[in-house]
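Before relying on records like the one below, remember that each one covers exactly one chain. Contacts with other chains, cofactors or solvent are not represented anywhere in the record.
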Amino acid sequence: MFSTFLTEFGKYLIMLKTMFSRPENFKMYWKEFISQCYEIGFGALPIVLIISIFLGAVTTVQTAYQLVSPLIPLTTIAQIVRDSILLELSPTVLSIVLAGVVGSKVASELGNMRVSEQIDALEIMGINPYSYLVFPKIAASFIMMPILVMISCIVGIWGGRVAGDFSGIISPNVFDRGLRMGFSSFNVVFAMIKAYTFAFLISSISAYYGYHVRGGSLEIGRASTKAVVTSCITILIADYILAAVLL
């Protein structure tokens, strides 16, 4: 089992090394990159907005439910919501969701191209399939996913503010005052570090499993499942490592 892991990890590193090559046609690569940015960014935006709003709302309600002591100021609710969204909920939870949305798409797309022999056709024409198919997906994810995480942070905090106002837990003025209290800009930096790390893991792992599919449509489904599961596990491991090292 360990030897199998080393073999797979070696193939993964070779894929990452091979995709960095000089483009045969820059315009063709640029067109593919823009297409992937649009599909990853705008394709996942609706689910990002919905999840972020309810993450912030639920965090506000549950925090207020636990802080029952009259000695604790209401501004503490806004501080907890802010830090929870920035440090964990938006970067990690959203990345796990994106692993299912974006990761399965990348794996199934490459898997379908492998099964239908489109990748073999690119190799015959002298085009490096790693740099033409894999690199634009990883680069697009590296750019769009952190943007989605930042949008999620903003929308999540706004959702918590709206939920606190509608439920009568905390007024908008008190919530805004709590957001400004004890704010650390490093929390935003930490969220972006996690976003870039998770974006690379999701896109590269999904691309690896999709590219190395062998068989038919059944294997494409299995590869997509493996890509999502492996991405989620590596996200959780990387989340712990980053928190232990940087916090």
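DSSP finds eight helices and no strands in the chain.
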